[in-house]
Design goal:
mainly beta; 6-stranded antiparallel β-sheet; 24 strands; about 0% helix; about 45% strand
Amino acid sequence: MKEKSPLLIKPRIDSSIYQSVTIKSANWKYLNFEARKLKINEKWEFNTEANEMVIVLLSGNYMFKSKKGNFETVNGRKDVFKGVAHTLYVPRNTTFELIASCDVLDIAYGWCKSDSDFPIKFVTPEKTQTVIFGGDNATRQFNDLVPPGFGCSKIVVREVYTPSGNWSSFPAHKHDERILDDKGKVLEPIQEETYFYKFQKEEAYAIQQVYTKDKSLDEIMRAKHNDVVMIPKGFHPVVAEHGFHCYYLNFLAGTDQCLENTTDPDHEWIYNSWKTKDKRLPLVTPSMNNQ
């Protein structure tokens, strides 16, 4: 097991931008991701240029100002285990400023090149779709922040809650070659992906594997609080340490704005084996944002 795998990015402690994965640093084509903290009244100014961007509120509150729309959060969650995200989609060629309106604001955001112009869109927790997926000890909660059909070019965003001891992203799946059916429907896209982790306590961890069938890539990593695991290709299952619930935020970008994928054929039978749902779920609900 590797804590220093090239796919595992540890957080910085000397910068407000405490996580950063770019197409240059990752040596890939589509996806950029960062996480940053701002103190009260601190401003972040940015121009998206040719990119679309999604900003996910991890904790705190902010004001957002641009010529395409102004938004303010008033019931931002206290941390990722105490509510659902506010999600802001920012189209290309947008200049904005984001201002922290709390003692410490924690946000994550991803961006990628966009082929088209789409409207700016602000999604509140109560309008975010939640899905309880899987079964038995592979049950987990999806909060679909930017699902397929959202109204954007290439980016997809989902936050996932995996209860203590459960498996997630399982059965293992991949999205690294573009496959179409005979009618042109996408069966599998090419997508790069980041897993950004948070835990209830900093000593907690998850185990993530990233592998290809030919084992040209075969990594097993211990992901801890604020770590990022990069998924350039291959299958990528996760298991949460017993005793601690696991949160990860997925950003994906690539050839298509979808969540189609290919399951590892060795494990596909598992879909039909589940008998129950984990009764601990959902771990978070929109009503928690107001507590």
